[in-house]
Amino acid sequence: MKKKVKFTYEETFEDDNKKENEKSSLNKSSPDIKAMFSQRVLAFLIDLVLISMITSLITMFVPVNDTATKLYEEQNRVLEGYVEGTVSMEEYVNQMVDLSYDISRQTVIVSIVTIVISLLYYVVYPCYNNGQTFGKKLMKIKIKKTNDTELSMNDLLIRGMINNSILVNIINVILVLFLSKNIFLSASSLVSSIQYIVLIISLIMIAFTKNAQGLHDKVSKTEVVVADTVKEDVLCTSEN
User: Fold this and answer.
1) How far apart are CA 60 and CA 73, in angstroms?
2) Vertex 55 angle, CA 35 and 121, to 5°
3) DSSP secondary structure string for all residues of 30-65
4) What is the pLDDT of residue 227?
5) Which pairs with CB-CB distance under 8 Å and at least 24 residues apart come from 74-80?
């Protein structure tokens, strides 16, 4: 004689919940693996070289006036004189500083184009490329939000402003347009020094802190992780 088994509503509900929880735990990926310090440094250097090459190629087609051309020629002449020993160290430094200021004023358009290229590469490109620049893609790492929300262009803009000298370049354009030479040189040196200090602090934080976040990561609430972590977790889960 067959024995009938009765299931109450509560038991059925509990079984359904248990199955859902088990399913969720299987689908849940393990914590993301932090990118190694060496990976991040190499990615940064690759991006720096690439963006320099791209900027140089594009700015070649930006028209430069005759005054700027003469200033570049004068700069080369002073450099040659210093190498040959006909120009003293003091004269070389003073003349190069003056020429650099004059060139900065005559090449504002080139500086603006450089800023636009940096924004496109460090902000727009990774926003539509899984949080990866070309350097990060080669190193198989990516930028993501610490709270796992969607990475936005604003997040990347904040990071780029701090970490990729975009803010410094914008400030320098404003300074050279509105300040006298002496004030510009002092202010520009100060801004550049602050930028170097921020980069050094960020490197130390990435290398020695638990979360491996630089100042730019802290401010934008992002982190850099191994890009294929999720893919590996999915493969492991599917095999089980």
Assistant:
1) 16
2) 40
3) PPPPBPPHHHHHHHHHHHHHHHHHHHHHHHTTS---
4) 87
5) 74/99, 75/99, 75/100, 75/103
pLDDT of residue 26: 41
Instruction: Show Cβ contacts of residue 43 under 8 Å, excluding neighbours closer than 6 positions.
Output: 133, 135, 136, 138, 139, 141
pLDDT interval class at 14 (50, 70, 90): low
Residue pair 43/138 in contact (Cβ under 8 Å)? The answer is yes
Residue 203: Cβ within 10 Å count? 15
Q: Rounded to whole angstroms, how far apart are CA atoms 94 and 68?
A: 18
Encode pLDDT of 20-69 as tens digits: 555 444 444 456 899 999 999 999 999 999 999 999 999 888 887 788 88
Q: Whole-angstrom Cα distance, residue 160 to residue 51?
A: 13
66's enclosing H/E stretch is helix 66-84
Instruction: Decide: 141 and 35 in contact? Cβ < 8 Å.
Output: yes
**Eight-state DSSP code of residue 121:** I
Helix ranges restricted to H, 85-214: 89-106, 108-119, 125-127, 134-138, 153-163, 166-178, 181-208
3-class DSSP state of 161? helix
- In tens, the pLDDT along 142-190 reads 999 999 899 999 999 999 999 999 999 999 999 999 998 889 989 999 9
pLDDT reported for residue 17? 57
Name the token pair of 236: 């492991």
